[in-house]
Design brief:
Blueprint (H helix, E strand, L loop, with lengths): L10 H10 L6 H12 L6 H5 L2 H19 L5 H9 L1
Helix pairs in contact: 1-2, 1-4
Amino acid sequence: MPKKIITKSSLPKIMRELDRWDGKLTWPLFCERVANVLGVGSVSKHTMYLYPAIKERFQQRQIDLRNAKGELPRDFTLDAAIRRI
């Protein structure tokens, strides 16, 4: 019987990593980070898919990151230059 990697105590750690994620979010990158956080050799996407809470939060986080990507940070020096001109 395989070792159970995701438990009740590790689930909040995984969710916290999703909430903190910045940049491109893919399953391989996320699985690698989860493995590092949990101190295990590896975690597969298929293991993560067994937990609907992780799957749903992952998909929502991807959407949130895509939407935030479209919002560029405001350049205040450019605004000041435009007002001055």
